[in-house]
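note to self: dont lose this again. the chain is below, predicted strucutre after it. 99 aa total, dont forget to put it in the shared folder this time
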Amino acid sequence: MDSTQSEIEALLDSQSEAMSTKDIDPLMSLYSPDVVYFDTVPPLQYAGATALRGRFLQWFDGWQGLFKMEIRNVRILTSGDIAVAYRFSRARGTLKNGQ
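---
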């Protein structure tokens, strides 16, 4: 794995850690102010850091305490100064509704 891939892997690990500890400021530091983030819940797309921050805080509030992020199938593709990464992420824990 080259250094770019290692850097991206570390960034993804930081993201997962900040999510699973509900630590919003370190999580948001990983995103640019003009981020466009796609999610599995409506409205499906969150444009800008303010919208994304609100989405994360709403999501965090749905959990009883902390949760665990399960990460699988990480793929990082790099070419020059461009990189693409994708993975399967699954949050595991207890929701406030008891599920």
